[in-house]
Design a protein that fits this description.
With about 190 residues, the protein is mainly alpha-helical. It has six helices and no strands. About 35% of the residues are buried.
């Protein structure tokens, strides 16, 4: 049993090691530049409220998009076999961990660094547009096969996460919303 679990774990990690490394590069870049240029502003609310705000936005957004995709008959969305491709005892928990790490790294980079730096240089709307465009470009797997519904979902997610960051002056609610969205998608698609 241990050999089987180790084999599945190796296949899963090997398939997604590039994604994990890329996400960690985003995180390290964001943290180094944010620290050097002091891009962290004082949040508009206490940290517990920041987390609750993100959760209150992320779960309904994830449920809405999942059922919208299901309703319009998005190709292969209801038959999604999971990130791993092959059934594995670690498939769903590992996918959730990967998506949590990805969401945290992406929000630290796109909202915590890119949007915050952009607001210092230009007005919020052009900065948000650049941030959202970079966020969409970062996710080509969601729109390359002409999945217009997924592209719309990706852009709307970028808008929601950027708006949360702008209103609260913190990337924490956007990170929580993104984590809740990713987790909702994985759990609904696999059960």
């Amino acid at each position: 049993v241990g050999i089987i679990v180790a084999n599945y774990s190796f296949m899963i990690v090997a398939n997604y090691s590039f994604m994990i490394i890329a996400e960690l590069v985003l995180l390290v870049t964001a943290l180094l530049v944010t620290r050097k240029y002091r891009l962290v502003a004082r949040p508009a609310m206490p940290s517990s409220r920041l987390a609750r705000t993100g959760i209150r936005v992320g779960i309904p957004y994830g449920l809405t998009l999942y059922f919208l995709y299901w309703w319009i008959g998005e190709p292969n969305y209801g038959t999604y076999s999971g990130m791993t491709g092959t059934p594995s005892p670690l498939g769903i928990p590992l996918a959730v961990v990967i998506l949590v790490v990805a969401a945290l790294c992406e929000e630290a980079y796109f909202r915590g660094f890119l949007f915050t730096l952009g607001v210092r240089i230009m007005r919020p709307v052009p900065s948000a547009m650049i941030c959202i465009a970079a966020f969409v470009i970062w996710h080509p797997q969601l729109y390359l096969n002409w999945h217009v519904a997924r592209l719309i979902g990706l852009v709307s997610g970028g808008v929601i996460y950027t708006y949360l960051t702008h209103r609260t002056k913190s990337a924490v609610p956007a990170a929580w919303a993104h984590v809740c969205f990713n987790t909702t998608q994985v759990l609904l698609a696999n059960f």
